[in-house]
Design a protein that fits this description.
The chain is of the alpha/beta class and 376 residues long. The chain folds into two domains: 2-193 and 353-375, Glycogen Phosphorylase B (Rossmann fold); 196-350, Rossmann fold (3-Layer(aba) Sandwich). It has 15 helices and 14 strands. The chain has helices spanning 12-22, 52-65, 91-99, 113-119, 140-150, 153-164, 173-183, 222-225, 227-240, 255-263, 279-287, 297-302, 318-330, 336-350, 353-364, and strands spanning 2-6, 26-31, 43-44, 74-77, 103-108, 131-132, 135-136, 167-170, 187-189, 211-217, 245-251, 267-270, 290-293, 312-313. The strands form three sheets. A seven-stranded parallel sheet has the order 3-2-1-4-5-8-9, sandwiched between helices. Strands 11-10-12-13-14 form a five-stranded parallel sheet, sandwiched between helices. Helix 1 (12-22) crosses helix 15.
């Protein structure tokens, strides 16, 4: 098959492409590298700034690239906003892609209209980006999501593409639950791909006998992601266990630097308000780090896992993060090696990029319904 993957989110499309190419398919990835993360791509569509010169150059690059994006058997979009333009300007490009190719699928890999719609209902999840302990989480990021996806052009664009496309593929439990309410007839569920062949395992650090806790901080999203609470929890623990732990902080650094810092750590803290590990957490687990973050039972059920429980699941509160790390890791350091081995086994079982690529192919070819039995 000839496959076109447009847009990038935490290296999902490039990793999927690696699996598809191993299976003998022709794949083209078009993206901006997910902004400052600068992930690999075959065709670079990057908008360097919002200035009029760079905007004109970006529009020219799109027009120059579009004739090359034709005659593919499958096109998959990372999100309805697959170009770095205002949402109301994207639909004509979608229509052209739709016209000059065969099948077209939409990814639901994070924030989109169903995510916001269902998240704003207090009973969809026990906690979410929008609710905690029955109370609305009010911060600039949640306000902006509501404005963009429920009252703005992003939501309109989602409706137009979701109604027209051949299928929607969700990769997080939360996306599955949210999209199921509106698009069950065209919804599929496939976990994120991880290429274990390209993974650098975490390294031992004989110069330091304690545990290294790694936390990545995006300055403008810390409150939304919960890394502010996780960092405070680590700092509390460090006062109690100054000789047993070290905090390693990565603040909006390029991906190669980020990976190198991760490689010299033991434990990753990520996604406080999630039921499900994201690509960052999965990458850490593939390296053998222990993940502290989203690992609710609903997530394990969605992937059919009945044995492995390698994630230190935490409720979204500073006290619970402290309690879980203290009881599961700091006072039981001998358990960490087994958790590390279980983490790698978990990735190999559920996220191997070649098996994931095979699942995508079955959905694209119309030979598989990939909704978990418990969600049908």
């Amino acid at each position: 098959m000839r496959i076109l993957l447009i847009g990038e989110y935490s290296n999902v499309h490039w990793t999927l492409a690696e699996g598809l190419r191993t299976l003998g398919h022709e794949v083209t990835v078009v993206s901006d590298g997910d902004c400052w993360k600068d992930y690999p791509r075959d065709i670079d569509l990057r908008r360097r700034s919002l200035g009029w010169i760079d905007t004109a150059r970006y529009l020219f690059d799109i027009q120059r690239t579009l004739p090359r994006l034709r005659d593919y058997d499958v096109v998959q979009l990372i999100n309805p906003v697959f170009l770095d333009l205002r949402a109301e300007r994207i639909l004509p490009y979608y229509k052209r892609l739709r016209k000059q190719n065969d099948k077209l699928f939409l990814g639901s890999f994070g924030i989109d209209k169903p995510w916001v719609e269902e998240g704003l209902k207090p009973d969809t999840f026990r906690y979410s980006d929008f609710y905690l302990n029955g109370q609305r989480r009010l911060n600039p990021f949640t306000y902006q999501m509501e404005a963009d996806w429920l009252r703005g052009s992003k939501g309109t664009l989602f409706d137009q593409i979701a109604d027209d496309c051949d299928g929607i593929i969700a990769s997080l439990y939360e996306n599955l639950v949210c999209c199921r309410q509106h698009y069950a007839d065209k919804l599929h569920f496939i976990p994120f791909p991880i290429n274990l062949e390209n993974i650098t395992p975490k390294e031992e650090h004989p110069e330091y006998s304690g545990l290294r806790f790694f936390i990545g901080i995006q300055r403008d999203r810390s409150i939304y992601k919960g890394t502010d609470i996780m960092l405070r929890a680590l700092e509390r623990l460090q006062k109690t266990y100054p000789d047993r732990m070290e905090i390693v902080k990565a603040e909006s650094v390029p991906f190669p630097t980020y990976q190198n810092m991760m490689n010299h750590s033991d434990i990753l803290l990520d996604q406080l308000y999630s039921y499900t590990p994201g690509m960052n957490g999965l990458l850490a687990m593939a390296k053998g780090l222990v993940l502290v973050g989203g690992g609710e039972e609903e997530h394990y059920q969605s992937i059919g896992e009945t044995e492995l429980r390698p994630i230190i699941n935490v409720c979204p509160s500073e006290d619970d993060v402290v309690a879980q790390i203290e009881s599961r890791l700091l006072t039981h350091p001998d358990d960490i090696r087994q958790l590390s081995l279980d983490s790698v086994a978990y990735i190999r079982r559920h996220h191997d990029h070649i098996r994931i690529a095979q699942q995508f192919l079955k959905v694209w070819q119309g030979t598989s319904n990939t909704i978990p039995p418990s969600e049908q």
